[in-house]
Design goal:
Structural class: mainly alpha
Number of helices: 8
Mean pLDDT: 85
Distance between the termini: 24 Å
Number of strands: 0
Radius of gyration: 16 Å
Shape: elongated
Length: about 130
């Protein structure tokens, strides 16, 4: 799982002309690593910046600052990214209704999930399922 995150981050950095590699420091920061492991191991849990900061044994503000500096994104962006990637896999690998997948992936409504999914992939959940089937 962490490998997928690193590959994604490298691709994103490669596409940004002004990108720096500050996030490499995070690989040595066990506090951030614990939060990343928590997200990757259970992305559908009701994570908050506060709960992830507690996992990292940091204050909310220190955690948010360190995470942003290391990964060039706020922590909840990573949570949503991982949830949407897992949702995409579920859409392809199962015939579960979109409503069920959206709830399972931690979204409060199908509408919220559908909007987020479309922003993430460029396709609605139904379109994504039909294009990858």
């Amino acid at each position: 799982m962490i490998t997928q995150l690193l590959v994604h981050m490298l691709r994103k950095l490669e596409s940004q002309s002004d990108a720096n590699l500050a996030w490499l420091r995070a690989l040595d920061d066990r506090r951030l690593a614990r939060a990343i492991d928590t997200i990757m191991n259970d992305p559908f849990a009701p994570h908050t910046v506060e709960s992830l900061a507690a996992t990292a044994n940091m204050s909310r503000s220190a955690f948010a600052k360190h995470f942003q500096e290391a990964f060039l994104n706020p922590p909840m962006n990573l949570v949503n990214h991982v949830r949407l990637e897992r949702a995409a896999k579920l859409l392809v690998s199962s015939s579960s209704p979109v409503d069920l997948i959206s709830r399972r992936c931690g979204f409060s409504s199908r509408s919220h999930f559908s909007h987020a999914f479309k922003r993430h992939t460029g396709l609605s959940p139904a379109e994504y399922r039909s294009h990858t089937a």
